[in-house]
Amino acid sequence: QTPLLNLYQAKATDSALVRFQRSKRFQEGLETRFHEGPIAVSPDGKALYMTRSHPIRKQPSGLVQILRAEWQDGRWGEAIPVAFPGLETASVGYPAISHDGNTLYFAAKTDPIFGNWDLYQMPIGKEGGQPESLGPEVNTLGNETMPFILPDGTLYFSSDGLPGYGGMDLFRTVKIEGRWQRPVNLPRPLNSSFDD
Fold first, then answer.
1. What residues are paired with 72 via a beta bridge?
2. Would you say 155 and 105 are in contact if contact means Cβ atoms under 8 Å apart?
């Protein structure tokens, strides 16, 4: 079978990051016959976190995993599954890394049949780091996925459980005094009645 999602890369040809060279396969050895992507690269360029799907029968830890690879000798090393204490049987995916490289943001689906995706964060590189839900201001009875965090701490994500234009909409939120604030729906044309 041909995978539906594979990893590709393209180099920018201008400083505004508007024009790119023709895309090419990311790296042989990181791809399998399953879905791969999206990915996140650490700010220092030494670690890559990627999403990979697995069939249910062969992967008891869930349909989707986040794996980590390290940059070694000019290429990415073997992708190893990331441990998420307390979420061992969950599907986990959609990694994003904070600007300081200390926090991994991701989505997890704890029930493979009836559950929905929620957003979590977890310290990177610290032993005993535990996944922590972003809480009820961000997570709903619907799905929250695709986190992306800016250097100023603004978190962008997609949700179909918060009021919006329909389908999955884009939202942003910030953390104030340790708590995520009520997400703000992004205006049109960034959002539409389709999945965004």
1. 75
2. yes
Half-sphere exposure (Cβ direction) of 157: Cα atoms closer than 13 Å: 32
Name the token pair of 59: 């992967």
> How do residues 138-196 score in pLDDT, each as one tens digit?
999 999 999 999 999 999 999 999 998 888 999 999 999 999 999 999 999 888 988 88
Length of the chain: 196
Cα–Cα distance, 59 to 67 (Å, whole number):
14
Q: What is the 3-state secondary structure (H, E, C) of 54-123?
A: CCCCCCCCCCEEEEEEEEECCEECCCEECCCCCCCCCEEEEEEECCCCCEEEEEEECCCCCCCEEEEEEE
> Rg of the Cα trace of the chain?
17
DSSP 11: -
Dist. CA 66–CA 189, nearest whole Å: 31
d(CA 61, CA 81): 10
